[in-house]
Amino acid sequence: MHDTRRPENVRYLVSSGLRYDGIRIGAQPAYDADQAILDAVKLAKEVDTIVLSVGLNQDWESEGDDRPTLHLPMRTDELVFKVAEANPNTVVVIQGGSAVAMPWLDKVKGVVQAWYGGGEAGTGIADIVYGHVNPSGRLPLTFPKRNLDNPAALSFKSFNGKTYYEEGVWVGYRHYNAREIEPLFPFGFGLSYTTFDYENLEITSVSPKGTKAGEWKLKAKVTVKNTGPITGNHSVHFYLSPPPETATGLKHPEYTLQAFSKVYDLASGESETVEVEMDKCECLVTRIS
Length: 289
Description:
single chain, alpha/beta, Rossmann fold, Immunoglobulin-like, 9 strands
């Protein structure tokens, strides 16, 4: 008869603190970490430019779980420091799902935050690095300089080993702005191989005073011009400054993202106007050529 009981080793692992009842079997080639770093440094000295791919995977981060630190795992930071010291022309490509610490940032020439690109991640990264595609992404979150700068830092496992996120409205970039904390990279940050300017920002319509909150509307538009040498995409963010405090004592952030839009394939020297309609809570986006 087939024995359906769990193996003893699985029972032992679960009782030792693993969160999930299961085991995954895998293997990797044995290697000496010290020698691997020495080999990387030796190679870095022999080439003109280094593209160093580092990051995380499902072993280190996943849905429903929190990383205890923002630092890259194991000896990754040491690897980046030593490779960059050997060759200053080092570009770091990070594959990961959230913010990471970058103590080596001022030692490298550039950083590509590649997130998780799936089966075509390598192709996408190569297109960006070699300039076949102009990057146009903006960060959807803030990268802090220190773990303690994170608005949820003191909430981590603060209640019987559990984490309750209690930032309220002061989540993300609102926290950094309110406490005047300079981040490593702010929310909405992103570089491109070209440049863009804004012109003719205009509020085209706004609801009159006395309009009910649920019926309030505001329309605004701005012209985006590609002032750089190559075609590119660009996201446009619209922020509003609500009253700092209501009559009931409800406080608001100094400003908050209220709408956004994006222009695509804008050639060098070309312009395009984007218009957004904002209400109390959300935004509707329209594009005007």
